[in-house]
Amino acid sequence: MAGQQTLTAPATVVFTDASIGEALIYSWKFGDGKNAESINPRHTFQQPGTYTVELTVTNEDGSDTATADIVVYQKSSGNGKDPDADNGKPPVLD
């Protein structure tokens, strides 16, 4: 799984599953009470905070879980961009 990602609120992220093999069930938890069951979901983090995103992939052999932290900052009042932001690079979960 990729390391911590840093974004500016509101931040829309397209998550990409990079697991190997065929999965039957994808279960995403975004750390803000929202969930998804698609392979590569899109999610918007509306508020600043640190969110632990969890992906559980299940197939006939069992399941495996990966996590990544997403840090969302309040938009600065200067040029509207946080200097620590990751320029919208999507997190990759492997």
From TrEMBL:
<dbReference type="InterPro" id="IPR022409">
    <property type="entry name" value="PKD/Chitinase_dom"/>
</dbReference>
<dbReference type="InterPro" id="IPR000601">
    <property type="entry name" value="PKD_dom"/>
</dbReference>
<feature type="domain" description="PKD">
    <location>
        <begin position="1"/>
        <end position="72"/>
    </location>
</feature>
<dbReference type="InterPro" id="IPR035986">
    <property type="entry name" value="PKD_dom_sf"/>
</dbReference>
<feature type="region of interest" description="Disordered">
    <location>
        <begin position="74"/>
        <end position="94"/>
    </location>
</feature>
<dbReference type="Pfam" id="PF18911">
    <property type="entry name" value="PKD_4"/>
</dbReference>
<dbReference type="InterPro" id="IPR013783">
    <property type="entry name" value="Ig-like_fold"/>
</dbReference>
<protein>
    <recommendedName>
        <fullName>PKD domain-containing protein</fullName>
    </recommendedName>
</protein>
